[in-house]
Structure formats: C-alpha cells, structure tokens
Design brief:
By secondary structure, the protein is α+β, with helices and mostly antiparallel strands. It has helices at 2-22, 97-100, 125-129, 136-139, 207-210, 253-266, and strands at 24-33, 43-46, 52-54, 60-66, 70-74, 81-84, 88-93, 103-105, 110-112, 120-123, 147-151, 159-163, 175-178, 181-183, 195-201, 218-223.
Length: 284
Amino acid sequence: MNSLQRMLMSLALTPAVAIVSAQEVNVSGVVTDATGETIIGASVVEKGTTNGTVTDIDGKFTLKVKKGAQLEFSYIGYNNVTLEAKPTMNVVLSENAKLVEEVVVTGYTTQRKADLTGAVSVVSVTDLQKQNENNPMKALQGRVPGMNISADGSPSGSATVRIRGIGTLNNNDPLYIIDGVPTKAGMHELNGNDIESIQILKDAASASIYGSRAANGVIIITTKKGKDGKLKVDLDASVAASMYSHKMEVLNAKEFGQVMWQGYVNDGMDPNTNGLGYHYDWGY
C-alpha cells in the first residue's frame, strides 16, 4: 500500500516539475572586450534579482535564470550591457573611455586612472562648484573616503583636514601641492572657481615623492590655465544664508555685571576689583 501511494504521488508531482523546468533556462556564454580578449571576473546578474555569477579565467559563465529574464553584464572600466537571456550568449563589453582615459596627477608624472595602482582619490570639481561654499576644503567633506574635515564654524575660516586619522604627535595637516609648489597653509584663501582638478594621495607611496612631509597625506591642486581661442567670460553668482534655529536668552551687559559683582561678594572678595571695572551701588 505504501509503494502504491508513493507511485501515485510521484505521478501527481511530475507535471509540476515539468512546468517549473519550462519556466527556467540555462544560460552559458563568453564575455569579451572589443579586441576579442576574454574578460575575467565580469559580473553577470539577472536584472532585478540577486541571482548572478562571474566569468571564469576563460571569460565563460553559466547561469540558470527565468525564461525571458534580462541579464546585466558589468565590469570596472567598461560600459554595462543588458541583454535578454538566451541559451548561448557571446557578449562584447566596450570600454568606458571617460573613466579609463581620465588623467590623474601623482606629483612627478600624470597617468591614466586605469593604470593607477596607489590609493589616490580624484574629486570632481564640477560637483564642488554646485555647493555654496567659499572654502574648497570644506566642500570636500564627505566626498573622499578616509578623509575627515571639520570646520571652526566661521564662513571664512579654515578647515581641519585629517587623512586616514592622526598619524603623528605634532602637526597632522596634509601637504598641499598647488601647481607643483608645496605648502602647509590651509586652502581657505583659494578661489574654488580657479581649481581645475584635485587629487588626494593617501598611501605611503606618496612619501617616495615628497618625503616625510607627505606622512599625513598629500592634496594636489591644479589651477586653470589660459587656453587658445576666442575670449570667453563666465559669470557665476550664488547666495547662501546660514541662521540658527533656536535663540538662547542671555544676559545683557548690566545683568552680567550684576551677576559677576555678586559672585565676587559670595567669594569674600572686593567686588569693585573685578576685571571689567564694573561698579554697582546696591544701596547699602
């Protein structure tokens, strides 16, 4: 009887298994670049899900997805490609020219960002110009991993910059390089509209260029230069307002003097010898 029940249950589940199998498809293929070279470690993900895989050393991949699903192919330095899933797929990724050809200044040379191996962060100056901030260093806050920026609260004041924390017992300010000239001064005097590019060197490799002065990191700033062509004038104006939300009720000058005078009395001191030269007649 038990054998008969198992056989009947197997026959009942067979159509359901066939339906599920019909809704899935095994996808396999190869991911290459424009020159035909296979790409190792390219990401292949079923769009809208976490189902995915990466290509092997030969650029090949195998993945089971839903029928009619969209597969997204991506790799660093290449444009993403989204295609409909098929049993056999040969995908070609094109280079992201803007990302690969971006030039980074490293102190003694300039090289493509794609060829860079050190810990260097490149800041988009276009994004900085969108902020109503007259200090370029304050505008970098939250934009560079490992760099902490704190201000003194003054709109025209300087900012304290710490790259990867405190590294020495004395001065922890980074080294600033402006058009090849090193300085330890803050950058609050520099006009943000004059900056063309900003790079932050964060690893020990920068010490091979600038020596011990680079122990706390290096911020390389390149300013704009004149270009050939017709005269062009740009006007950029912005207004920013800053105000406090809660006003504190404080003493006025007379009330403060009275409190200070009474404090001297409470301490058994001559209240007329206070530092402000305040004298008050209490009538006794």
